[in-house]
Amino acid sequence: MKVMVPVKRVVDYNVKVRVKSDGTGVETANVKMSMNPFDEIGIEEALRLKEAGAATEVIAVSCGPAACQETLRTALALGADRAILVQTDVELQPLAVAKLLKALVDKEQPKMAIVGKQAIDDDCNQTGQMLSALLGWSQATFASKVKVDGDKLTVTREVDGGLETINITLPAVITTDLRLNEPRYVTLPNIMKAKKKPLEILTPEALGVDVTPRLITLKVAEPPARKAGIKVPDVKALVDKLKNEAKVIS
Amino acid sequence: MNEYTAPLRDMRFVLKELVGLEQVASLPGCEEVNVELVDQILDESARFCREVIAPLNKTGDVEGSRWEDGKVFTPKGFKDAYRQFTEGGWSALQAPAEHGGQGLPKLVATLVMEMWKSSNMAFSLCPMLTNGAIEALLLRGTEAQKKTYLAKMVAGTWTGTMNLTESQAGTDLALLRTRADREGDHYRIRGQKIFITYGEHDLTENIIHLVLARLPDAPPGVRGISLFIVPKFLVNADGTLGARNDVQCASLEHKLGIHASPTAVLVYGEKEGAVGYLVGEENRGLEYMFIMMNAARFAVGLEGLAIADRAYQQALAYAKERVQSRDLAGGAESVPIVRHPDVRRMLMSMKANIEAMRALACTVAASMDIAHRHPDKAERLKHQAFADLMIPVVKGWFTESGVEVASTGVQVHGGMGYIEETGAAQHLRDARITTIYEGTTAIQSNDLVGRKLGREGGVTAKALVQVMRQTEAALSKAAGDDLAAIHGAFSAGLTAFSDCVDWIAVNYEKDIKAVHAGSVPFLKLTGIVAGGWQMARAALIAQEQVTKGAGDKAFYEAKIVTARFFSEHVLSQASGLRTSIMQGARGVLQLSEEQL
């Protein structure tokens, strides 16, 4: 079974994100970029499936500008077998990415796609679900445990009320939650080996996908700064303020 | 706040723009090295250091390594971190590919090692010593010895140690007494060694000790010392572990710093005598040590840079956070101390020294690569001469600066820095050993004025002055007030250095004691002029980038101002040092011992 894992290049989670001065988006020039952490969990899960004999090949894919090759190289250094970049400088929204991924699934014929539940830049949490709908595949979102048994998958999902366990049938889209696994560190020998692994570059046009944005971003702004607190003299004043100023009690 | 984030932006600048990765990548054996690969190595190393090694720095200091009945236990977390370190292949960074290493050039390894040492110096000593032992075996081990030990040591499955010091034989190894008696195909080793870094620990199943000892019929002095392999567990013909060898850890030292690093007293041959195997030829052990010395001294020099950077990161974070006193320019509120001029001066002195050291370290590392791999012999010799001249400077100046910067880090914290909880004091305590081991600063300075300068009449140093004159000429044509200030300080510093080189070349034979009386100031002078030279080169490159309107203007502007700070606050000491070197001998030597 081939497993496809999409990886997105995002601002590193350690970086304090800043809004561009013209309000058109987030500053990414000279900012450290890394693989979306949920996608890293996806790669790790695919590698574990391969190590357990359930998967035969792990294909990392990314959609975006040429610099996404770096992210794919990291996926290869982690252990993915090969990589595909759908290269475009157009701003990609979840639906466009899902369509590109569908085209790649049609081309590569994997039986499983392990997708990060969301990317830490736009926090959309849509791509995996859209991909499942476009393919007509089963889906198991927010997975914290995946067990493969032939064509059947048992997936534990993180839901609001706790954990939910479901059975689904392959082919399937799984989206990863934080507790699914702890990704390994890239090893030095694997960094050296990754250079020799194949990295194919395609375009949306070649895949016949229209990636034109459907949404327009009007403005991006920093959240309002927190105001300084005040000291209240006694409980009575506190209750009064909570009632009449903050209006959180009545 | 006690985190470590590798200074990747400056590292990349030094690697790509200042030194030029391509001059190393084009060397035979480095064909695989390119910018993308090195970027990825630096990224992953930075991540591993931040997440795995750095968090153990403070806990390791507090807990320390512990001796119990001959066994040594490293602090909590060290064993697991070491396992991850070896599984990640980091121990194989430098070793040649035929022995399972990655064979990366020194230039790349230098930055990776800086990260290990910054994130946890006590941890980093274990792979550093293992690497020293690997080099000894590569250099003079037999094929059978290489086959038995190297692969496991490169993989980090076994660690290595270097056993030189005895209680009566520190700097002067001629005094060492540990003896080796011939017995068939091996030797029996008996004696006591002290200060053995990671001489005993629980990280690996075996430890390969390299031991200096004397044969019964050996000539006296340094020409009668041989080098032996003494494994903790003997290794069977099939590679499995055999009998426990007769070497015991008698105790661990209680030290000022590097508490997590076990510094062992090792007793050889209390029972039947420890089995040892000769490396190379009899009576040539010290000679082999000398060949490895460049790498070892360079590595310890990096500790000075690395600790300085960790101390800076911590002091900077504190200075931005600690609110105390109003801004001199006015305002009713107390402000973060980073806004006070002298705190700024302290932080800038830390930053400027660190950047100068990193630039010089990588310049020397690239020369070591070229000296090792270049196809043209003349090129190799030229770079070897430069590296040989600079090694004592990297060791001596970096470590002295490291102590100074770590001390400044405590000062930035004020009273809070003197309290252990903040963690600033640990860096000072850890740094303090670096000017002592692997040859004290005085030993480095003796090497510099003697072997590297006096005995060759200053040929290499004079050639270096000529190379630096080219940078001076480029500075004289550069525009702007900052570059003009850098030019002025660099010219004066270079003249002071050149004067002292000439003076030492003339006086080395005539008045050796006077030359040695000024040798440590001369080492410092060489350091600040070489560091100032690299900062000047960096400023020229940065100026060009700013003029071109390249991205990351903030970085390049900061580089120019930092170079200016270095010129006016550090390099400006050059003429004072010239006075101590050329005129200070009487003050040092004149008094009788009774008058002291």
List the helices and strands and how they pair.
The complex is a heterodimer of chains A (250) and B (596).
Chain A: E1 2-6, E2 9-11, E3 33-35, H1 37-51, E4 57-64, H2 68-78, E5 82-87, H3 94-108, E6 112-116, H4 127-135, E7 138-149, E8 152-159, E9 162-169, E10 172-176, H5 188-194, E11 199-202, H6 204-207, H7 235-244
Parallel strand pairs in A: 1-4, 1-6, 4-5, 5-11, 6-10, 7-10
Antiparallel strand pairs in A: 2-3, 7-8, 8-9
Chain B: H1 8-19, H2 21-25, H3 35-53, H4 56-63, E1 66-68, E2 71-73, H5 78-87, H6 106-119, H7 121-140, H8 143-155, E3 158-163, E4 179-183, E5 186-197, E6 206-213, E7 226-231, E8 233-235, E9 241-244, E10 247-252, E11 263-268, E12 274-279, H9 285-321, E13 323-326, E14 334-336, H10 341-373, H11 377-413, H12 415-418, H13 424-431, H14 441-449, H15 459-477, H16 481-510, H17 512-517, H18 519-548, H19 553-570, H20 574-583, H21 585-589
Parallel strand pairs in B: 3-6
Antiparallel strand pairs in B: 1-2, 4-5, 5-11, 5-12, 6-7, 7-12, 8-9, 10-11, 13-14
Helix pairs in contact in B: 1-10, 3-6, 6-7, 6-9, 6-10, 7-8, 7-9, 9-10, 9-11, 9-13, 10-11, 10-18, 10-19, 11-13, 11-14, 11-18, 14-18, 15-16, 15-18, 16-18, 16-19, 16-20, 18-19, 18-20
Detailed description of the structure:
The complex is a heterodimer of chains A (250) and B (596). Chain A is α/β, with parallel strands linked by helices and 250 residues long. In chain A, 28% of the residues lie in helices and 27% in strands. In chain A, β4 (57-64), α2 and β5 (82-87) form a beta-alpha-beta unit. Chain A is globular. Chain A starts with a strand and ends in a 6-residue tail after the last helix. By secondary structure, chain B is α+β, with helices and mostly antiparallel strands. Among the domains of chain B are: 22-65 and 75-139, Acyl-CoA dehydrogenase/oxidase, N-terminal domain (Butyryl-Coa Dehydrogenase, subunit A, domain 1, Orthogonal Bundle), CATH 1.10.540.10; 158-283, Butyryl-CoA Dehydrogenase, subunit A, domain 2 (Beta Barrel); 456-588. Chain B is built from 21 helices and 14 strands. Chain B has helices at residues 8-19, 21-25, 35-53, 56-63, 78-87, 106-119, 121-140, 143-155, 285-321, 341-373, 377-413, 415-418, 424-431, 441-449, 459-477, 481-510, 512-517, 519-548, 553-570, 574-583, 585-589, and strands spanning 66-68, 71-73, 158-163, 179-183, 186-197, 206-213, 226-231, 233-235, 241-244, 247-252, 263-268, 274-279, 323-326, 334-336. In chain B, strands 3, 4, 5, 6, 7, 10, 11 and 12 form an 8-stranded mixed beta sheet that branches. In chain B, β4 (179-183) and β5 (186-197) form a beta hairpin. In chain B, α6 packs antiparallel against α10, α10 packs antiparallel against α11 and α11 crosses α18 (519-548). Chain B is globular. The mean pLDDT of chain B is 96. The A-B interface holds A 14, 29-30, 32, 70, 73-74, 77, 185-192, 194-195 and B 5, 8, 32, 36-37, 39-41, 43-44, 47-48, 51-52, 84, 87-90, 92-93, 102, 551-552, 555.
